[in-house]
Structure formats: structure tokens, C-alpha cells
Amino acid sequence: MEQACTESAKAIKPIDRKSVHQICSGQVVLSLATAVKELLENSIDAGATSIDIKLKEYGAELIEVSDNGCGVEEHNFEGLTLKHHTSKLQDFSDLVHVETFGFRGEALSSLCALSDLSIFTCHKSAKVGTRLVFDQNGKIIQKSLLPRQQGTTVCIQQLFYTLPVRHKEFQRNTKKEFAKMVQVLQAYCIISTGVRINCTNQVGQGKRTPIVCSSGTLSSMKENIGAVFGQKQLQNLIPFEQLPPSESVCEEYGLTNADILAGFYTITGYISQCDHGVGRSSTDRQFYYINQRPCDPAKVIKIVNEVYHSFNRHQYPFVVLNICVNSECVDINVTPDKRQILLQEEKLLLAILKTSLTAMFSSSVNKFNVNQQLMDVTGNVRRSSEEVDCPKADQTNLSERGTLAISKLREAFSISHRPMGSPANTKTEKMQTQSPSTAQRKLSAFFNKSPKVQTSISRNVLDVSDAKEPQETQQSLSEVTQKERDCESVKGTISTSDGELGFSTSDLSVCTNSDSFACSPETIVKTEVEYPTSCDRHVEDEIASKQPDNDGADDIPALNCKRLKMEIPVNNTEPDLVDAPVNIMKKTVPLNFSMCRLSKQMEKLKRQKQQKEESEMFRRFRAKISPGENQTAEAELRKEISKEMFSRMDIIGQFNLGFIITKLDSDLFIVDQHATDEKYNFEMLQQSTVLQGQRLIMPQKLHLTAVNEIILMDNIEIFKKNGFDFIFDEDAPIMERVKLVSLPTSKNWTFGQQDIEELIFMLSDSPGVMCRPSRVRQMFASRACRKSVMIGTALNTHEMKKLVTHMGEIEQPWNCPHGRPTMRHLASLDMIDF
Predict the structure, then answer these.
(1) Residue 146: inside a domain
(2) Fewer C-beta within 10 Å: the chain N or C terminus?
(3) Is 0.90 surpassed by the pTM of this model?
(4) DSSP state of 256
């Protein structure tokens, strides 16, 4: 305690400048991608039209960025690599209007602290170039004159060697970091029009391999996309069409008319079509810009992918979107790498994106082009382009065929959706009178309980208090099946003091409230339902089964007749009678209360609660068997159960022919026999199956980017285990060096380039690790399901023990390939009072 007080009493002192420099530098340059991005931005800010990036050993040994920009003047040599020295800003207010990529003056200074940095530059006003070597503090330690053309070359060697932990991590994941760097580089290649960017990599003493190459003569974003990803990628892109936000979307985001500012945002770019097979299996080709600055707007990315998934749920789009907004409405100084940007009126931007993307995809999602005549729902005949110039005779025949098809379509539609009031199914007949109570009881029993006939009286039909002339209307019942249409017919009439009003029983309801509509107290509703002789027995049986028990004596004679006659009195009940007060007899009961007894009871409850909490402290498993707690349950099982424990579990028995009850010490577990066997079979198939390849007649070009080609070449054995085989041509240009010669096939499962790209994406994150494309996993999951023990299969003790033991032999025994839990904690015997 005394030592802690002494430590806290130490004086607060500033950190020395060298330590501050190293601490802050490690937060500015985080990865290979950050280092290359900073150097590339400096070259673009210098007005370069040609930038060459040369890497050795994927950037682990050397990073060299050369440009033909304006160069550095001699009087700026000293401040070139000092902390927070920049020519972009004079004061903080300039930050609002900054249009260059870099402005903080941290990149070169941080790179000096993390590597060996040298700069070779020649300003347009200088006669000869100068080579500068800097120490870790950004001070010039060597200066020499050398001939050079106008421009600057920055050379970085041994990146992160001053931070041992980060340097070791960087060397271990060099290829993974290299792939991320290339993706960042592609973003600048797309948006930087009129700038040629070329990147190469050299491994060992081999020749330089081109990675990314764009042409400086191109002046549009679309042409840059074609240069970086190939012309094939352009075939599936559609330009972004900006629309104002719709009312429904505005309501979703809480926007009012005052919040919708016209011209606040201007969005341009391209996105993949929503057709299945056009998108990608990952998000590796999504590029977002704000005022032509590459960034990662999380909410924008989320809404774009959500809208796309609503039309194509299995793939991701290729996206290039540039969002232009007034610089005063953007905060780009959020993070050191300037990838996170804050926007004013962000909800308006999201509403515009959602409305525009939904409209773009909706306009093309239902299109299907075929070379034959098509009919729309209005009956208009559409003809293909081949039929536009056909002879008149052919056009006449076409018109007749179209008219015939329309008539048949309408006939079929009228049969399945016959409108109410069809004269074919109803008649108007006068009805006989029964007692009001009997008729009302029969009507309620028949029409409310029979599934074949539903009746209601519309409010307009019964408004007969001012009726002067009889009115008739005929309606039919909507038949459910063709059999019922052949044997059912309903007739209905309403008899009033002034005349008769025909209606169908499908529009029948009882008027009991004078506020609903005006009807006299004497109004009587009479309905007569007649059944054809061919189905009398069927209807009688149906009605008999629907009659209540207490009405059976009254209804039996009616069932022997061919007609069911009903009469309903419609009474105009006064509101005062309905809302009359009810007298309730109240009884007073004395309640014995004791404060002493209450306090004792409260103390007892507190002791019980405390004992329960103390006992639960020793529980290892707290998650319930509930779908909402699956993740918590799996975390508990991973924490408390190791693989060797499965072999020590005792088999209690089988429950419901689908679950195995096991015991480990004092804990009981329930195991899904099908799910656990399915997961074991699935992992065995994953490990042991080598898919056989089907040789192609001709090699197929894959049009992979340079970095994807490198990933494929480095993991060729994994591709072979998945049934893919390739040939390589080192002398071919980029995106044509790899050709597919063999595809995996397995029964009715076929695979293609989409699976190759997905596999490449997975290997870019985990190089050298055996993995399978998602469709291969689906195939294995389907086969594992069919060969596993099914629910309903009786198992003996030996078979149950075998299934439980297998759970200790697989990597992830907690759920099956389809996501169903394999095992849950059932109960702890220590917590049960016997």
C-alpha cells in the first residue's frame, strides 16, 4: 500500500520527443497498404501523370514510388520529413476547403521512424537532382547530387523494423498485407483519371511481375475500370441513376420535405446488375469515394449491399460510387488514414441511395427477352423484332391467335375468380316464414359454422327504411373447388314491408344496432338455401355435423327437406337498453394484517433469494435451451467442455427416438443424434474427399487480376484438391496468364469461375489453409445429411456411445453444417432437490 502511494505521488513529466515520435508514428502508418497509400497520394498531389510503384518481396524488403510530379524545392528539404510540416494548410480554417489527399504532414515523418527512408527528387527549376537520406527523427544525414528528370522517388526499406512485434507480424502475413495493398491501389487507379499508375513486384532474383497497370490517356471512370479489371467486367455494369428519395423511404429515415435538399448530393458511378451470376461471391470489388477521396463509409456500404441482397441474396455487387458534396459539409480529419469521413445530412444520402438502387434493380428484375409473342395482363399482344415486318396474313393470324388466347385466359380467370352476383349461381325466390328465434338460431349455426358457406349482409343492402321500390341484386358464392361448384347453389331474398330485396348468402350479416343503418323493427330477413338433388345427402350430412347439440331436436326435421328456410328478425334495439347499469351485489370481507408477520415473511424471502444466488455461483451452465441463447450456450460449452470429455460421458438413454441423454459428473446433456452424426460425416468428407476434375475441351481464360493470379499460383495444391487445374503462361499479359483446364464435377453438382474467385478471396485472408468453396460445402452437407442417423431411429447403448465419442474427434462439434445445435446442457443434478 505504501509503495502504491509512492508511485502515485511521482511528478507528471512530458514524454521525450523521440518516444512521442515513435508512439505517434505507429498510429499513423498501420500497414503496408497505409504506407503505399500515403506515398501514392503525395505523388498525385504533386501533379504527377505517371507513377511507378516497385515492390520487393511483396513490400517486406523494399517499397519504391517514383513520379514525374513537380518535385521538391531545395529550401523545403529540411521540413520535408518533419512532424506536422506541410504546405497544404496555413491555419485550421483551411481544412474546410482542402482538396488534396494529404494535408497533415505526418506520412513521411512517420515512415522515417518506422523504416529506412531516402528521397531522390528534382524540382522543375533545378538543373540536377538531389538524393536525401534521413534518420528516424526525420533529419537529413546524407545529401548528394545526381542526375534525374523532374519528379520524386521515395524509397522505403525494411518497413516496421523499429517495432519488433509489428515487424514479425508483417513478415508472417506478407501476402495477406500485399493483397490489401493492391485493393487500395485499385481504388486510386479507378478514380485518378489522366494518371498512369503501374505497380510491379519482384520475388528473389526473378523478374518483375506486373500487379496493377492503368493508362494515363484514359479520361473516364468507366475506362479505368476496364483497364484495371478487364473489359469483361464492364459488360455487367450499369450506370448509377440518381433519384430523389421516395415518400416511403423518407418516412423510414424520418425525413420531412424540409430535409430534402435538392442538389445537396451528386452521386455518379457504376454497379453490377442484380441478375444471379453477375455479382460476386465477396466484397472484394467495392470502391466508395467522397469528393473523389477513397473511403469506407460504413452506413453507405451497408445500405448498398442490403438493397442488392433484396434482389440477389447470394452475391455481392461490384460497386464504384463517387459522392460529391460541398466540402464544408464533410469532415475528413477523423482518423489518421482519412478512411473514415463524417457527412452532414447523412440520412438524406442513405435515402437517395436506397430509392435510386431500388428503382434501378426493380426496372430490370422482371425482364425476360425471348423471340416469341408475349401477352401482358391487359391482353395486349407483344411481338418480337422478327415479327414486326411479317406479312399481313401472318399478322391477321397472329391477331386471331392472340384474341383466342385472351378469351381463354379470361374464361379461366372467371372460373377461378368468379365475381359476386353471377346469375348462374343465384335465383330470387320468396321464402316461407318460421318463428324468429328458430330461424335466427339456424342461420347462426349454419352460416357461421359451415366452412363452405359464409354470409354477411352489407350495410348498403339493408338500408331499406326509405326504400320505395323493390330492388334486386344477384350474387354467387365463391366456390373453393370444382366439385363444390358442380353441386352447390345458394338462393337468398330479403323480404320487407315495401317489397323484396334479393341478395346472396355470401353477403349476409345481422343488423342489431340502430347506429349501423336504418331499419324498422318489423324488418325480417328471410333466406332460402336450395341444394340440387345430386348432392342432397352430402349437404344434409354436412349440415348435420355443424348443428349445435342444444338445437338438435329442432333441426332434425329440417335436414330431411330439400330446402333450408330461415327467417331473422332485425330488431332496432335502443342504446339505453344496451347500456343500462347493472346492479352488482358487493360483499365486504375483513382482511387480517400483521406488520410483524409481514416483516418475517420478507426476511424469509430475502434468505431464500440469497441462498439461491449463492448456489447459482457454482453453476457452470446458465444458458437456456432456447434459439435466442444459442450463441451463449455454445460459448459455455466451448469454455467448460474439452474434447477428451466426450469419451468420459455416460450414456443415460435415448429420448423420443431423436436425442441422447448423457451425464458428465453432475451435469446432464441432451445430444441431437442426427445433427451430431451429420457434423462428423461432414468434417470427414471435408478432410478426405478429393474432387475429381473434368477436363475441358479448350483452356478457359479467367481474366484474374495480378494479385489473384499470385494467390492462385501460391495455393495451387488447395485448388487441385478442390478439383480445379490450371496452366500458367508467364509471358502472357496481366489477366491472361492463368487458364482453367479442368473443373470439378460430382454427380449433378457443377462448379465454375465463381467458385474459383470465392476460393481466392478465402485464401487471401488465410493463405495456405485448406478451405472449400461454399457450394462444395453445400454438397458435402447434403451428402452428410443423407448418410447420417435419422430422427426416429432407435439406437442401442453402443451406437449412442459411438456418436458421442465422435464429437471429440471433430473441430467444431457444437452445431451441424446447417446451423442446428448438436448439444445443449440439460440440468445440473447438484441444483435439483430430490
Answers:
(1) yes
(2) C
(3) no
(4) -
